[in-house]
Structures are given as C-alpha cells and as structure tokens.
Amino acid sequence: MNKVKLYTILIFLTIYHFVHGQNKLFIPDTLSGSVINLHLQKGHHAFFNNYQTATLGANGNILGPTLILRKGDDVKINVNNQIGETTTLHWHGLHVAPENDGGPHTPIINESTWSPTFEIKNRASTCWYHPHLHHKTNEHVTKGISGVIIIRDEIEKKLALPRTYGADDFPLVIQTKDFDSSFEIITQSNHDDILMVNATIEPFLEVPSQVVRCRIVNGASQRAFNLGLNNDQDFYQIATDGGLLPKPFKTKRLLIAPGERVEILIDFKDMTGQTVHLLSYASELPSGIYGATNAGMVAMMTLDGYNPNPLNGKNFKILSFNIIHQTQNPIVNIPNSLVEKESINENLSNITRTLTFSPMAMGMNQLNGDFTINNASFDMDVINYEIPLNNIEIWELRNQSAISHPFHIHDIQFNILSRNGQTPPPNEQGLKDVVLVRPGETVRFITKFETFSNPHVPYMFHCHLLPHEDGGMMGQFIVTDRVSKTKDDKFNKTEKLKIWPNPATNMIEIIHEEEIEVYDQVMICDTQGKIVYKKLHTLSPKQNIKVDILQWPSGGYFIKIGNSTFSEAASFIKK
Q1: For residue 429, how many other CB atoms are within 10 A of its CB?
Q2: Over the stretch 530-544, which tens digit does the pLDDT of each residue have?
Q3: Is 421 left (phi over 0), alpha (psi -120 to 50) or beta?
C-alpha cells in the first residue's frame, strides 16, 4: 500500500513539472524604518497548480517581508500573533539583549503582540528571522514563517557592490519540504524531496548581464546544499553569517548548512540571452551530512524516510538564472578587497568550554533518535552556563555522533580557530554564528560576550537541524554583569514586572512597579504556551495581586500583563 502511494506521488510530480515548467521566483516585499509591524498569520499557498496548501506567514500567506535595517538605527518591531497558537520570533544573527532575542523564553501568545525595541548593532550582513518555540520550531518554520534581514552600514555603502534590491541584489531562501497526497506539508519528515526557493518550486530569475549579488539563506529543516553553477564557472563568496570577508573568495563549490547565510557574486557580464543554473552538487557530499547518499557515516546507518529520495546524493537544480540586458550604472567588476578582518587574539581568552555532541542511544539506529549536548537534553529550567559580561571564551565543539550538526549560538558572532587542529579555509575566517561540525570532528571558535546582560533571560545554543533542536539538542546561558547586575541598551527600561517569591511553591505575588501605566489583564502560561491562568485585574503599585499555584505542575511559567497586547512579561519557576 505504501509503495503504491509513493509511486503515485512521484508520477504526479513528474507530470506536474513537465506540464507547468518553471515559475518566476517570488521576491518578498521590503520593510524598513523605525517602527516595523509583522503580522503572523495562517494562510494558503499554491505550491502546485490548482491545489491550495495550508501555510503560515508574516504579512502574507507564506514567508515574510525582507527587513532592511541600518547599523546604529533604533527600531521597534511589533509582532502580532494570529496563527492560532503560541509561537516566538527569533532574530537569527542579530546582537540584541536576551529579552529581545525571541528565543523560547519569550513566547508570543496567540492574539497578542510582542514589541521588542533595540538598536541595530550588527555591521552590514544578511541575517534572518524565524520562530523558536521549543518543540514547535520545525513545524512553524516548515509551514512558512521566515524572512530575510539585510543590514547596511557606511563601510559597505562605500564599496562597489550590487545593492539594488530585486534588480542586482537578490534574497534566496532555499528550503525542502515533504507533502502528503492532499498536498499538505508534512512537518516531521525525512522525505523532503520538493525543493523551493522563496516558496517557489522550479524557480527562474531574470538577472542582468553584469555582476549580481545573491544573499543565500539555508532555511531548510535539515538539508545541506553544495552550491555550484552548471557551466562550472567561478563565483565569489563575499560574506559569511556575520558580514563581509576581507576579500572575495573565488570558488566553484560552496557548502551551506541549515541556518547559515552566504553572500555570493556571480559575473554574468557578456552573457545576455543565456541561462545558467544554480545546482546543489549533492553527489559530492561525503557521508554523514544530511543530503548525501548516506546521512550517517556508513550505509548501514539508515534514517527513516530518507531513501528513496531523488535529492539525496544526486545533483539537482536549485534555480535558473535567465540573463537579460544590463541595468543602469551596472557593477561589472569583482572587487579585490572588502573590509578589514575582525578577530580576537586567542591568548586573551578567559576560559575554554567543551561541548560534546552524542546520540541519545548509541548504535546503528542512532540517526532515528534524539541527540544531546554534554549528555544532557534541553531543560527550560536549567541554565547550562553563567557567563560574565565581556568574557572572551573559546568553545570547543566535539561531534561524537554519526551525523553532522550545524551548531548555532545566539547573541554573538565568532571566529573559527580550527577544524581538527587545522586552520579553516579563507571563506570560514569571517564572522559566523553557525558552523557545521562533521562526525568525529572538533571545531574550536573564539568569541566575546559583550554589550548585553540579564540575570533572568537566557540566550540559546543548539543544533540547527530543527528536529534535533526540538528533540532537545539545545542548551542555554545567561550573561551576567557582576558590577551593575543588568546592562542593556538605551531602550531597555527598568523591570516593571516582578514575581515574589521566585522560585515559588504555593503562592506568587505579582508586583507592578510602573508608577504611571495601569494594566487590566494578567495571563500566565507554561513553557509550551498553554494558558493556565487568565483574568481581568487592575495591576498598579497599589493593587498587586496574588495567585495560588499550589496545584500547578513543577516547571517554568511566563507571566504577561497588558491591555490588548500583553506587552510586559516576566518568568518564574515553580518547584
């Protein structure tokens, strides 16, 4: 029965591509300014002609607008959640205070609004945003919520680079998905055989016959892509996760893992009328990377649903570039240099931390189980590291599992020091926040935990294979300022909402210290966003409230207060 269903789906997809051919690449709209409104919503999208698939999106049915921000600018982002359940929105790659980071400790309850306000401190780079609620990250991302963030600065502005959005500077969010026989997205699947760019299947993009810039985000749940052009021409990587490299890196292949971003330049000069295809040369991927013939180190290590899949271990097309006439004032040359390298002297480090990746259960079936960091699965109530503000640290990542893990850390960018004792290639010597750690490999990086601290709200570190992250391959750390206790940017106000006692056993008192604002609603939810308490209250300095929690299960809880938006938040732990 399963085989019949499989062949039916494969036959349909073959007919679909034959009949309908290619589709013009969708380019998301842009938003910028000091106030940005994002509306998370349910929707439908026609991935396949005449068939509507249920999706999630920001300001639309799927994906979200590209946010164009400038270093040094102040921005307030109002995120209104209307998807029917709790979610979060994480600014992947942005250097912001932990309460503004959008991790699992900052849930956005359905029909409420979260409004982080912060200064853009990153240099020119390509970042992205996506949900980050524990156990729900893969589902919410796979169904469609994600978007690109472009950060500009004065240094990048002076370089002769393409930067006209949608004309010679293009965002490319690459993903793979699995669909059932009703053309609905299967969120927990290793049979992700449908490739799309910007939610477009079989996409083509008209590009001018000049130097073109592609900002590529690997937004896939698990798949790595080995990028190259079908005519085997060279292209140039100019940026990593954290921004521009010292000089362009000339290459024919570029491996990009889930969560990573790269910026590349392709020279299409004197190629008007031609078509060039961007491919993933998956046949060249070594075993142990999701996307290779073998997801594990040996063929006997199977992953449920992984095979047969026409994308695994075989070269396939990602995008077709149809080359047209030049734009006005085209960029026609590849620059020789870009920016000065930012790095930290290894001798200045205060501590080295070792993180070991391993399967929950060893053996030949380990790929179908969960994975741990230092033999521990994620616990919302456990802080794995307490890091002093301005600490310079070396993190040593050791992969003792049979599959590669793209490791991501929030808050900071880092410099890779070595892979198995060897200096990384030039294109990995820029600033990073994701690094792919292969089976048996040890990767060392150095970073500084600066600017922000908060003793109550943690940052996260985790594998960016989303099923691994949801399965517990994640940890958290707080950054503490032992001198001033908290240090935030100029927008962060003194805590308005306090809970006493914390941790608590029988009763909590909610104390509102703002002298002017008065709120009339109180909501308490658990770490999965389930509402356990919601009542109308007038909360002011003279009318604090008490809540009986004696019968509640032990664990972490979030309190939100507000009028219609539940805009202020704090958390507490029940023993």
Answers
A1: 18
A2: 778 887 766 665 567
A3: left
* 125-145 per-position pLDDT tens digit: 999 999 999 999 999 999 999
Q: Kindly report the CA angle at 121 between 117 and 123, in degrees rounded to 5?
A: 140
Residues of the chain within CATH 2.60.40.3080 domain(s) are: 497-574
Residue 503 has a pLDDT of 78
Residues with Cβ < 8 Å from 232, sequence gap 6 or more?
252
- Rounded CA-CA distance 522/503 in Å is 19
Q: pTM for this structure?
A: 0.86
Q: State the pLDDT at residue 393.
A: 98
Least confident of 25-34, 221-230, 553-562: 553-562
The CATH number of the structural domain formed by 159-338 is: 2.60.40.420
CA separation for the pair 412, 391 (Å, rounded):
12
CATH number of the domain at 346-480, please?
A: 2.60.40.420
pLDDT over 50 at 7, yes or no: no
Q: What is the DSSP letter of 125?
A: E
Strand partners, 130: 90
Does residue 157 register a pLDDT over 50?
yes
Residue 455 phi, psi dihedral angles, 5° rounding: -75, -5
Cβ atoms within 10 Å, residue 242: 25
Could you read off the pLDDT of 42-58 as tens digits, one per residue?
999 999 988 999 999 99
Alpha helices in 137-218 (DSSP H): 137-142, 154-157
Could you please state the CATH topology (level 3) that the domain comprising 497-574 is classified under.
Immunoglobulin-like (2.60.40)
Q: What is the rounded distance in angstroms from the CA atom of residue 330 to the CA atom of residue 208?
A: 9
Examine residue 308 and say whether the peptide bond preceding it is cis (omega within 30 degrees of 0): yes
CA 569 from centroid of its chain's CA atoms: 23
Strand partners, 264: 214, 237
Tell me the CATH number of domain 32-158, given options 3.40.640.10, 2.115.10.20, 2.60.40.420, 1.20.1070.10.
2.60.40.420
Backbone torsions φ then ψ of 157, nearest 5 degrees? -60, -30
Closest CA to 93 of 471, 472, 409: 409
